[in-house]
Amino acid sequence: MAGAADPLLDIRDLSLDFASPGGALHALRDIDVTVPRGRIVGVVGESGCGKSTLASTIIRLLAANARIVSGEILFEGEDLAKASEHRMRELRGARMSMIFQDPMTALNPVRAIGEQMIDIQHRLPGSTADKRRRARDMLATVGIPDPDNRLTAYPHQFSGGMRQRICIAMALLVEPALILADEPTTALDATLEVQIVDLLKELQREQGCSILFVSHHLGTVTELCDDVVVMYAGEVVEAGSVREIFHNPGHPYTQALLRCDPGRIREATRQLPTIPGALPDLADLPRGCIFQNRCPQAHDRCAREAPPRHRVAEGHTASCHLLEQTEEAPA
Amino acid sequence: MRGATHTRAIGAGRHRPHALMQHWRRLRRDQLGVFGLVLVVLMVGSAILAPWIVPYDHTELMTGGRLAAPTWDHPLGTDQLGRDVFSRLVMGGRVALQVALAALTAALSAGLVLGLIAGFGPRWLDSGMLLVLDAVRAFPVVIFALAVVTLLGPSLWTIVLVVAITSVPIYARIVRTQTQSLRNNEFIQAERALGAGTPRILAIHIMPNVIGPLLILASMDVPLVITMEAGLSFLGMGVQPPTPSWGTILNDGFNHISNSPWPVIAGGIPIILTTLGFTFLGEALRDIFDPKLRKDV
Amino acid sequence: MSDPLLSVDELRVRFRSLGALRALVRGVRDPYIDAVCGVSFQLRAGETLGLVGESGSGKSTVARAIMGLTPSQAGSVRFDGRELRGLPTRELRRLRADMAMMFQDPVGSLSPRLTVRALITEPLRIHGRTEVNLDEEADRLLDMVGLTPEFGGRFPHQLSGGQARRVGVARALALNPRLIIADEPTAGLDVSVQGEVLNLLAHLQRKLGLAILIITHNLNVVRHVTDRTAIMYLGRFVEQGATETIFRAPHHPYTAALLSANPEPDPDAAHARVELHGEVPSLMNRPPGCEFHPRCPYARELCAHTPPRVTEAGGEHRYTCHFPLNAHDMAAA
User: Fold this and answer.
1) Which ipTM was obtained for this model?
2) A234 φ, ψ (degrees, to nearest 5)
3) Which of A156, A327, C228, C270 has the highest local Cβ count within 10 Å?
4) Three-state DSSP state, A249
């Protein structure tokens, strides 16, 4: 990926387990993700792939039964996996902030949004009046009409799209280096999604922060992101620039995913392609490649050994045995 | 909500052990719950098997004398007529069990029916029923009991009637609230779309989802009911001598407290044990059946 | 052309927004929300119609009004020639056997305490079809939707989204309906399994000659599985016609906006993006004139005060716009 020098966020070999009565669920395994400064990286995958878990792990908002088994989360040089809770709290809402999927429940329903926006600036210098002004300016920037009067309004008085804009405003108010966006447009209608995506693009350009954008919607990721990481059942199967991945997908899962997207299919058809089979059991993983039971090109080797990461092109890697002619990517 | 990805139950494809086994395993892990279960089994068992396990006939006057302190022969002493207190208490358990069973069954049934109707029917019916139910609940129990006793005379069934009637409003309200929250759920709409009539929807689709929490609540009300019975019998409105009831034993003990404290202490023990047992068991059951309270995954 | 199986004409659905007393106190003369304002369309056997719109467009309300789950205030709904509105409950129940609905939430629309087997055979029991062997029927229906008989013993919470959808289809088929209304059949499903449900519906349609009404916001899906499409905005159809035509040359600006709002996963795709201003207005504050004008990038003076009439563009293609796009043969009004 471009801009590899001194990335903002560098996740290496991250593995995470969830404890459960039926055994440990290996939700994330050997994850490698790099977010360069000032770039938007998309994390794409379907239900159960672990993309939301990844975002939650970075900011460490995890359930009690989650445990980081190994790996590093290097953020501005510091390993978050080993940081104390106190340190994480210092970072949250200062160096990194998060936008959640459901705007309906992401805001405190019993406090005015102005109060919430002033609250979130508690670490920043300045008087309350200064903070109120910054909040008002930010509301205007994200496109809330009549911001002066809206500061005293409550979340339920806004529509879903407006609420998500407010959440974005709050995430950006503290001028973080990294924004984690967990499916922020999934709950919104298509025409609203378009507006939010454009807004994010514009604001990112202005502020220069990095965004990790989690989504299952391939089209949105193509619109917004510079680089993309494809996840399947807890592993990263492919990573590269958006252009590379969509024009030249290396991993059979990515290829299948693109094949199945009805938006990509040129000819109208009554027989839509699917990926047959089901996700593997995270508590009882198969030996070898994680995708073997659904891969149209699976062969003997896939069942014996897990494929290493292979280089498909400059800055583009995928984990598949079929790519073996190309050199192996550096660990 | 548009496009919300449905997080597939991880392991939904795996073979799940039978639901009952899972519940039993969870119960075993809750130590207080197990303790409660043991107590309940003890109390209910001794009540059922009472005639066969009492060491003495509870009406027999003992040679040990009256108001005797506990001895090996009479572990809880004797009462003012010389009867073995332990035997009387065990027999008294039968009264307590009968009252609890009869009263709660009646209250549950009536509460279920009324609650379903109030929750599913039109607004005006709901408002009307709530008015009546709240009025009943607001009425002081003891005064109500006095009125009933005046009409029907003191007896076991008088107590059952009083307890049942005063418990109905609470159960009805719970059922009503649950029914109301379910009635707009998609699966109810789906059933209506299939042509299911109201009786079918209530009986097959709403009631089974409502009855679980109700039963657990009722089990936690058992000690309450028994205490009510004890209290009303204490005031002379319940079973008459020589039938033993925990309340009358307490009453007798109270009357002779200056002579010997033992009957009062003894009379309190089964009430305490039953309360503890049912409360712990009920709470454990509630935790098991309420998925939101589960601590493990 | 054969008679349509379902014929909807000027259907209107209103909801009370305020109780009678409060409306009186606040001086609100007309405390109603018009969720559906005069919707008309036809559906023939063996045909699939897509009803497309965003939240608040009224598309789900139309479906529920057709099924009789929501009362409608005006218009006509004719099924197989018989008027459904105003039909006594007993008659309606019998007709319900011919129309089946699949609901949006795949797991939530299944009664949680019943097994899959019981759920699938519910319709048979409700309609008193006791002469049928229920177990055999259950197996037959499960097979039809591609589930093994083993699924019969499972409970809804033990099913994945895709499996629950199939159970919904099986249940809908139990009484051999002639019409299936599918409310957001792909909502909550991953792209890789969406096809399973849609392919299944297409296959069943071919095999059984079903008429299918698909309600969705997902235009990509509509393009592939429907014969005709209708686009809804604030309770009205703004455009309807053959799917092919609508996708190739949309006439209404909202249709064009919806089409361009579905970003293609192709970074080099040329994007003629039609971006809309603002958000969908509340149903209680309907804009005057053409209701779409405050958001329309092509709105002109006329649009603000005169509501456009329905224009026929030949071949069952209709739209409601003063200044349609792609209408080379139309002179601007």
Assistant:
1) 0.82
2) 90, 0
3) C228
4) coil
Q: What is the pLDDT of residue A327?
A: 55
**Host domain of residue B224:** 2-289
Kind and range of the H or E element at A13?
A: strand A9-18
Residues from chain B that touch C127, judged by Cβ atoms under 8 A, are 195
| pLDDT at A165 (0 to 100) | 92
**In 10 A of CB A251, how many CB atoms?**
27
Q: Give yes or no for a contact between A41 and A228, defined as CB atoms under 8 angstroms apart.
A: yes
**Pairs from A146-155 (Cβ < 8 Å, separation ≥ 24):** A150/A113, A150/A114, A151/A112, A151/A113, A151/A114, A151/A117, A152/A112, A152/A114, A153/A112, A153/A113, A154/A109, A154/A110, A154/A111, A154/A112, A154/A113, A155/A107, A155/A108, A155/A109, A155/A113
Give domain status of residue B142, yes or no: yes
Residue A262 and residue C220: Cβ atoms within 8 Å?
yes
CA C118 to chain centre: 27
C32-41, C58-67, C266-275, range with the lowest pLDDT: C266-275
Does residue B20 sit within a domain? yes
Letter string b/e over residues A189-212, b meaning 16 or more CB atoms within 10 A of that residue's CB: bbbbbbbbbebbeebbeeeebbbb
- Rounded to whole angstroms, how far apart are CA atoms A270 and C198? 8
- Residue B212 tokens read as 């679980």
Q: Which residues contact A105 (CB under 8 A, 6 or more apart)?
A: none
| Edge-first strand listing for the sheet containing C82-83 | C32-43, C6-16, C74-79, C82-83
| Interface-testing mutation among B186, B200, B201, with chain C (most C C-beta atoms within 10 A) | B186
Residues linked to residue A78 through DSSP beta bridges, in sequence order: A75
Return the SS3 of A143.
coil
pLDDT of residue B227: 81
Residue with tokens 């807890």: A234
Contact C106 B205 (CB under 8 A): no
Contact: A270, C202; criterion CB under 8 Å: yes
Enumerate the H helices of A125-277 as residue ranges: 128-141, 147-150, 160-173, 190-207, 218-224, 242-247, 252-260
Q: CA B219 to CA B283: how far, in whole Å?
A: 9
In a domain, B297, yes or no: no
Pick from A25-34, A273-282, C236-245: least confident: A273-282
pLDDT at site C260: 82
What contacts A239, CB < 8 A, 6 or more positions away?
Answer: A1, A32, A33, A227, A228, A229, A230, A245, A316, A317, A318
End-to-end CA distance of chain B: 25
Answer for the pair C183, C60: CB distance below 8 angstroms, yes or no: yes
Contact C175, A253 (CB under 8 A): no
Residue B296 lies in a domain: no
CB count within 10 Å of CB C257 equals 21
Q: What is the dihedral of CA C248, C42, B2, A116, to 10 degrees?
A: 100
> How close A94 gets to chain C, by Cα (Å)?
31
Mutate to test the interface with B, among C93, C109, C111, C176 (most CBs of B within 10 A): C111
**A47/C199 CB distance under 8 A:** no
Mark yes or no for CB contact A263/C220 under 8 Å: yes
Taking a C-beta distance cutoff of 8 angstroms, is the pair C174, C124 a contact?
A: yes
pLDDT beneath 50, residues of chain B: 1-17, 292-297
List pLDDT tens digits, range B132-150. Answer: 999 998 988 888 888 988 8
Q: Cβ contacts (< 8 Å) between B1 and chain A: which residues?
A: 102, 187
Tell me how many domains chain B contains.
1
Find the CATH number of the domain harbouring B156.
1.10.3720.10
**What is the least distance, in Å, from the CA of B206 to any CA of chain A?**
28
Q: Give the end-to-end CA distance of chain C in Å, rounded to a whole number.
A: 33
